[in-house]
Every structure is written in structure tokens, then in C-alpha cells.
Amino acid sequence: MNFKVQRAGLQGDKWQTVCTNPNQDYAEEIYQKQLVMYSIGRFRLLDPDDKVIKEGKAAPLFSRN
User: Fold this and answer.
1) What is the pTM of this model?
2) Strand blocks (E) in 1-65
3) Residue 33 in 3-state DSSP?
4) Starting at the edge strand that comes first in sequence, how are the strands of the sheet with 42-46 ordered?
């Protein structure tokens, strides 16, 4: 049973899994890194039963003052 980190583009693209890991702390760390590394897109963290734990949008690059 793995936690998943997924991403989707702003155009309503399908969700793509970018990370799977049995450790929730590790998956949450990857989720947070995705939000910081990318300037566009939506990201979510799923539990092993595919229920959304967290969901967020990346902040545009120039809004991070």
C-alpha cells in the first residue's frame, strides 16, 4: 500500500503519478517540493485507498516575494 503524489496541468489534464511510497512522511515531503519546484500546475497527495489527503496549486513564479 503506497501513498501517491500526483500532478495535473492547468488545462484540466489527467492526473499523473509522480511518486509512490509506503512512507507518508516521504510522500508529503515530495508533495511539498512539487509545489515549490513548479510554477504552474495542480498537485495532490493520496492515501493508499486513493483518497485525497492534500491538494494544492503551485504558486506562479513571480508571486513568491
Assistant:
1) 0.84
2) 3-8, 16-21, 42-46, 52-57
3) helix
4) 16-21, 3-8, 42-46, 52-57
For residue 30 the three cell numbers come to 515530495
Distance CA 65, CA 53 (A): 27
Please say whether the beta carbons of 34 and 7 come within 8 A.
yes
Residues in the chain: 65
At position 19, the amino acid (one-letter code) is: C
**d(C-alpha 44, C-alpha 65), whole Å:** 24
Cell of 9: 496541468
Summarised one tens digit per residue, pLDDT across range 16-49 is 999 999 999 999 999 999 998 888 889 999 999 9
